Amino acid sequence: MKYLIISIFTLFMLLFISACNSDRRQNQQQPIDQKLMEKSLVYANKQAVKLENEQIKAFIRRHNWQMKETGSGLRYSIYFDGNGPNAELGKIAVLKYRVLLIDGSEIYSSDKSGLKEFEIGRGGVESGLEEGILLMRVGDRAKFIIPSHLAFGLLGDQDKVPPKSTLIYDLELVALK
């Protein structure tokens, strides 16, 4: 977190200095050094990803979960094996679910909102959820840890998911239609 704050502060200071210099030279326009800005943004993003990964690893250790990780960064554990058909693109997934933030606070659940249904591969849900569902079959119960870049990203969902939030799903694939 400290590195992210330092990176963001550095970026803002560079932009401020650049703006001050352009004010002093009213008749001359000084272009912002694009490479320097790009490097600063890339550094800040890498630090944010590193911090989020550390938080996810700490969460997994605290809860003593055995998780697998996909190439995208989704962590998952299928802790109960069902015996139904495998999920596949174009099918409608029907889920019982509970969604938590990494601090443990529950933000959504099927107990309160009803079962969740979505067409696999069509979008409209977190990309990490779609990726995880494709690893399941009907009757499976699983836990997913979805990093922010596979969830709602920089903005959150404009409701209960804050910006840059890791989501924890505990779910059951009830049916495929």
Can you characterise this structure?
This protein has helices spanning 2-24, 34-63, 110-113, 127-133; strands spanning 68-69, 75-80, 92-101, 106-109, 116-119, 141-146, 167-176. The model has no long low-confidence stretch (mean pLDDT 88). The protein contains four helices and seven strands, in the order ααββββαβαββ. Strands 1, 2, 3, 4, 5, 6 and 7 form a seven-stranded antiparallel β-sheet that branches. The radius of gyration is 21 Å and the shape is globular. It folds into two domains: 2-63; 68-176, Chitinase A, domain 3 (Roll). The protein starts with a helix and ends with a strand. The protein is an alpha+beta fold.
Short description:
The chain has 177 residues and is an alpha+beta fold. 36% of the residues lie in helices and 24% in strands.
Overall CATH architecture of the largest domain = Roll
What is the rounded distance between the termini? 43 Å
Q: Helicity level, as a percent range?
A: 25-40%
Tally of DSSP helical segments: 4
CATH fold call of the largest domain:
Chitinase A, domain 3
Total beta strand runs: 7
Strand content: 15-25%
Low-pLDDT windows of residues:
none
- What best-fitting shape do the alpha-carbon axes yield? globular
Rg calc: 21 Å
